[in-house]
Amino acid sequence: MTDAEGFPGAGDAPVPRILGNTESLAATAPGPAGALWRLAEPGRQLDANLIRVPPRGSIDTHAEPDLDVLLLVVTGDGTLSAADGPHPVEPGSLVWLPHGSVRSVTAGESGLTYVTVHRRRPGMQIQRHSRP
């Protein structure tokens, strides 16, 4: 019996894939802040990033007007600040950031690494303007 035989209708369907290990990626030697990993699979409906904030570093106050974002802390600790006050985060903290919410993030003494997931933004479209 082949693997596909145990999954009726799976013939040409895409298959799940293991993309990496967040713990291993986050454990790499400290480097610059920013994205350690990005989801780049063709045809995806989601965007996801593994973000590192260095010790005592921060992400300035901002809002995402169009997309809800899910944030999962992988390593380190810090504070998510929002209109309702500061919220401590640590490994395992799962945070929903509703679209339009204003927030900032500050890493603790050991830095902060987290995954963000949100709906993929549509690509830029070049459109022809009609002349009056």
UniProtKB/TrEMBL annotation:
Gene3D superfamilies, A to Z: Jelly Rolls
UniProt superkingdom: Bacteria
InterPro entries: RmlC-like_jellyroll, RmlC_Cupin_sf
Descriptive protein name: Cupin domain-containing protein
Source organism (scientific name): Streptomyces iakyrus
